[in-house]
Design goal:
- The protein has about 725 residues and is of the alpha/beta class.
- The chain is about 45% helix and about 20% strand.
- Strands 19, 20, 21, 22, 23, 24, 25, 26 and 27 form a nine-stranded mixed beta sheet that branches. Strands 1, 2, 3, 6, 7, 15 and 16 form a seven-stranded mixed beta sheet that branches. Strands 4-11-12-13 form a four-stranded mixed beta sheet.
- The chain starts with 15 loop residues before the first helix and ends with a strand.
Length: about 725
Amino acid sequence: MAPIQSRIDSPAEPSRWIGLALALAVPLLGLALVVADTAPVRLLRNAVFDQYQRWSPREQVDVPVRVIDIDEASLARLGQWPWPRNRLAELVERLHQANAAAIALDILLAESDRSSPRAMAELWPLSNDLRSGLMRLPDHDDLLAATLEKSPSVLGFALQQSDSLKAGSAKPANPLDPVPFRFVNSGENPALRVPVFDSAIKALPRFEAVAQGYGSLNFIADRDGIVRKVPLVMRLGDQIVPALVGEILRVAQGQRNYLLKSSGPATGLTEIRIGSVVIPTTPAGEMWMHYAADSPGLRLPAWQVLDGSANRSLLEGHVVIVGSSAQGLMDLRFSPQGEIIPGVEIHAQALQQILSGQFLVRPGAATPLEAIAILLGGCIVALATIQLGAIRAALVTGLTLTILLAAGWIAFAEHALLVDTVTPSLILAATFACGSLYHHYASERKQRWIRDVFSRYVSPNRVNYLVDHPGSVSLGGKVQECSFVFTDLADFTALMETIDPREAVDMLNGYLDELIAIAFSFEGTLDRIVGDSVVILFSAPIPQADHRARALACAQAMDRFAHEYATGLASRGVRFGKTRIGIHAGEVFVGNVGGRTIFDYRALGDPINTASRLESVNKHLGTTLCASEAVVGESAPDNALPVGRLVLKGKTQAIEVFEIVPERELPQRAPRRQYRDAFALLAGADTSSAMAAFKTLATAYPEDPLAILHHRRLAEGAVDDLIILTEK
């Protein structure tokens, strides 16, 4: 039968007005997404602002802010956390004596000190005299309360959201009472826009009663876990409550009031005034964070304050926050700069921004400006791509994108304004792509034909071969000898049932992507992907004289990657499964199969089934890589160990099979020479000698699957190396 040649007929020249309409549809769709503030737009916008911060972190300015760090060194010197409250009292006392302007504890003091003498007296089995003596000692919580009362102290509480609040039916909250702060509204009440919580984990009443400041310790991270904004006010039920940062500023200035300025309930907050400090906010009362590069001078180890070695000038007149950077205390957050930083440092950096006046602001006109950029730029780009040639259209588009991207960067770097011009730029780039595709479709029929043909191929070597041999685009092929690598991932279906399917698919995509990349690095051809299995073809479409060696090297590289990938996931508690690999070579039909609608470049023949069976044999043998004698040949690599003559399922003829032992397993395996000597006895039907040899190896190397296999077979009556498999 003559081969069927696929061709793409050229339609009548379409109208440019249709092309213009199609091109303009892209910015209109993008405009709708931006105005609706959809999740993908927010995600991209956050990524843009994060990159800006990496390129231009906040400039360090000397302001009186200090973190008293309960770091690893302090824990090593003074003991594990939690410290006794009398030690905290001593720390606060020393800070007060150093004339700190405000002393904030980024620590939740919600429970009594279990190391207090009274608590110990009730816990330990003591004589009455000893118990009475302990009861007369000062209580640690009383000591801390007394110290807090005479200091400019600020404590924290943690707000919580119950399931009923998340579902939209909040319970009445237990308000803070009494409170040392007061809120005054300028304009409409903005309470409806700020984050809402319905319960709080409070400090002990004795501490609440004496603290001069009392603020929330909460951060509200974005969905990716990054803290980009710090809330300054929140709601506990119907009660407006401040954040720790605001309370530090209020206490340091000796103020009582917060002034909340709003343009109306629909627009939310615009700024918060605390004494002489004015802080621009989002409508929800949040402050955008502009993180500085790491500043070791910001932190002062707690042990230096306690032993008196800290320089008094580093504390006098400063607002200080006591918190921890120790990893074991788990107060760690993600920053836009791609770093993990302590929560106390976020508080400190927020204070640095406020006191230095270095605010990041997303202006209210940002979204309208972005919408105008999309509409105006979309019209320019759409007209250019439809009316002009490819080069001139690209120049116009490039100039438009350059202006947009430069404007966004200048707004950030020079004026600290958060205006997203990257999203409009991507929409304009998509408009250019859409218009260009239509333009090419209308005027460059041959290029459209080549693109359509290329879309039918996957592997780079196939595409290169097609470019060099355009006459090969036809149904049919030829018979030739090829090598195959067949991989399969064990237990992936079970993994899908235990974790979020999206997370499982992401893991699988990363796994398959790297496997295929490895195959391409050895100039292999992707034959097919079936679920979590991959079939790689060597010696087609371009013949490769060394295709067996390439297949062996590729399979071992895949095995190394798969093991490292699974090990990395196992360290995170995810059992990804083991990758089993079969390698075989033989004559197959290679070429294009399909019809006029679509081509599929495939290899067809029994050697592919044999490679699949060899992959399955690994499960029976306890191995990872199995290769046939057709691949290993006479020049077998040193790590190729004979398994035996296997009759695979559905076959009648036995084939010689070898295990390709991964290098990582060699220390746990029997010495290769001893194994080969024992196998030679088995292959020679010297069963008694083979039994003794394999018993010795199985005893000495209980993790060697082949030694265990042959020892078991001999014990069950095997007389040679012939293995007949009845199960896949």
